Amino acid sequence: MFRLVLGLVFGLCASAGAQDLRxxxxxxxxxxxxxxxxxxxxxxxxxxxxxxxxRCSPEATPGSIYNLESLRGGQIDFALLQSxxxxxxxxxxxxxxxxxxxxxxxxxxxLYPETLTILARADAHILSLGGLLGKRIDIGLPASGRRATxxxxxxxxxxxxxxxxxxxxxxxxxxxxxxxxxxxxxxxLIVGHPNAxxxxxxxxxxxxxxxxxxxxxxxxxxxxxDYVHASIPRIPYGHKGRTQTFAVVAxxxxxxxxxxxxxxxxxxxxLENMTLVGLSASVLENLSPRGMRDTGLAAPLHPGAVAxxxxxxx
Length: 314
Known about the structure:
Elements: H1 6-10, E1 22-27, H2 34-49, E2 54-59, H3 64-72, E3 78-82, H4 83-91, E4 105-120, E5 136-138, H5 145-156, E6 166-168, H6 172-181, E7 186-191, H7 196-205, E8 208-210, H8 215-223, E9 228-233, E10 242-255, H9 260-272, H10 274-280, H11 289-294, H12 303-312
Parallel strand pairs: 1-2, 1-3, 5-6, 5-7
Antiparallel strand pairs: 3-10, 4-7, 4-8, 4-10, 9-10
Helix pairs in contact: 2-9, 2-10, 6-7, 9-12
C-alpha cells in the first residue's frame, strides 16, 4: 500500500499543494552502515529534484531479511537487499523456506559490490575459514543479510553451531566493538570497501582480514551464481596486497504495484546525479548505468526503471 501520508495532513494544512506530496519509505540498514548512507544519498537526490512532489524517507532497519519481509507486508515501499536475498525470496530458500515465492518483487537498480569480510583478533590466530571453528564469532542480527549469507556458507561447507564456542547475533557496530574489547574472536561482515568500521578495527585493535578461499569455497561459488570471486584491497587499511573472498551485490527493490513514475524518478535522478550521489555515500562513487541495470538483479526490472535506463543508455 503506497503512502500518501500528506493526505492525513491535508485536514490540518491550508496549503492546496500539500495534498499532492507523495511520501515513500526506503528500508536500509544500521544507521552507521553503508546501506543507510546509500539510501540517504538516493533519497536526497530525488527529494532535491522533486521538491513538493515526492518525498523519500530512508529508514534504519536490522538489514536485508527484515527489509524483504517489511516490503512484502507493505510496511515500506522500497528496500535495499543483498542480491542473494533477492534470489532466495523468489525461490523460497534459506530464511524464506516454507513461504510462498515473492512473485511481486521487482528490481529497481543494482548499486555496489559487497564483500564477505572476516575480521579477526590477531591473537585468535584465525588464518582461514576453517580457523573460525571453536571460536566466538559474530554472524549478524537474525534479520540481516550477512547472517543469512554466512550461515548458507557454513552449512555448505559442512559446519554446524556445535563446532563453534559461540555464534553471536550482533549489529555490525556492536560486533566491531566486541572484537576490539576482546570478547569475541571474529566478526563476519558484508560491506563495501573501503569501510570506516573495518579501518577503525584494523587501526585501533590490530584486527586482521581473513581470506575466504580454497576448494570448498570454490565449490560453493560454483553452486550459487549469486556470488562471485572478489578480493579486498588492503592498501586503504595500511597494508599491501589483497585478501581473497567473495561478493554479493547491494540492490534496490520494490513491489510490482509501486507507481511507474515514482520508480522512474528515483532511477532517473540517481543517473543524472551520479557524481553528487557518490560524494554523499562513498560506496556509490563507482556507479555505472549499465551495471545498475544488469548486475545481480534476480527479480524482474520494474517498468519504471526500464524506462529510466532506456532513456539514459542509448
